[in-house]
Amino acid sequence: MSITKTLFRVGPPTAVAGLLLLAGCASEPPRDLLAQAELAIQNAERAGTSQYEPGLLSNARAKLNRANKKVDEDENDEARRMAEEAIADANLANAKAEAAKETNQADEMKKAIEALKQESSRESEER
Amino acid sequence: MRPQILSLKGSSVVLLSGLVMACTPAANMSLERARNDYQQAASDPAVKNNAYADLSAAEKLLQRAETSWNEDEDSEETDHLAYLASRKVDLARATASRVEAKKTFDELSSQKDQVRLQAREAEIRKLKAKKVPQGILVTLGDVLFDTGRANLKAGNLQNMYPLVEYLRNHPDTRVKIEGHTDDRGSADYNANLSQMRAEAVMNLLIANGIAPERITAQGMGEDYPVATNATASGRQQNRRVEVTITDMPGTQPPAASGSGM
């Protein structure tokens, strides 16, 4: 079993890797981040994001769910990453929805002005 | 011993694959993408000017991703940080477009006020109306009536159309109609004539669809001349019907303010 020997020879690095893995497991569950993610998603929902950015919002929701699952599995590093990404997705959804709303308002205003201009030009033609 | 060997074997495989990756030239797709995203956004003046804070947050995340890659070659954490950086760049773009849209909106808003004002001025010009403290005043000349008569002359009715149209377009206004005469004839006769002329104008408005509760008509007789009664042209100016259009329903008894927006 020469393979077994080789494996034993690379013993110390493996031990280091094992320690790193252990360290990963020992970190605390990212409770604050999970709460922040929940809040960010709720904010985005309240801003009517589901209408403008449904994909991003469900992305964020899925990642938060995954983060909670990873906490249960004691994989807190992955849980942290997922929570951080959920926050990023929710915030982006929010910002995109706000931008879309603002753009809509500007478009509405443009139309209103066109209507006014047409009205007054029609009136002056009638004179 | 066997289970231990097995577990060691597993870890070693992971480790070995890590070593293999380390030997390949350092490249991480998501990091590449984040770099590109950031550089494009950073060279876009609209993003730089309107979303500077988001852009620098993105830069910091990108630097963390670079560090994670250069020092640890931890591809999972690098991917994650690169993802966050790309998202932050997108956020900066969204912020920039929101700010730009807001600017456009504000510019258009003030433009709209101006256009509305111009439209209103055009309307008033068309009505040949004069601005007065209560609203606007349209003076209908004596051409509407034959001397001593109170029925409207059919041939001159087109003078009334702009008024009717204006009142139709502005249903939230009220109309006060006042008849005036020159000083020829007795005061009673003139009071009566001016009342009938004011009512003739009112009836024409009602016949053209203007709600009666918006309108009041009153004969003022000869007591409010706008010119001298000593000359023919002065007397002609004094024979008139004045129509005052007001925006405020409050100037009339609230009970009559039935017509609405």
Automatic annotation (TrEMBL), chain A:
Origin: domain of life: Bacteria
Pfam families noted in UniProt: DUF4398
Region (Disordered): 99-127
InterPro entries: DUF4398 (IPR025511)
Composition bias type Basic and acidic residues, residue spans: 107-127
Residue ranges of every copy of the DUF4398 domain listed in the record: 34-108
Name this polypeptide is given: DUF4398 domain-containing protein
Organism this protein belongs to: Candidatus Methylobacter oryzae
From TrEMBL, chain B:
Gene3D superfamilies in UniProt: OmpA-like domain
One Pfam family from the record: OmpA
The UniProt record lists the keyword Oxidoreductase: no
Record has Metal-binding as a keyword: no
Location within or outside the cell: Cell outer membrane
Keyword vocabulary terms for this entry: Cell outer membrane, Membrane, Signal
Domain OmpA-like residues, every copy: 132-249
Signal sequence interval, chain numbering: 1-22
Record-linked SUPFAM superfamilies: OmpA-like
Protein's UniProt name: OmpA family protein
Species of origin: Candidatus Methylobacter oryzae
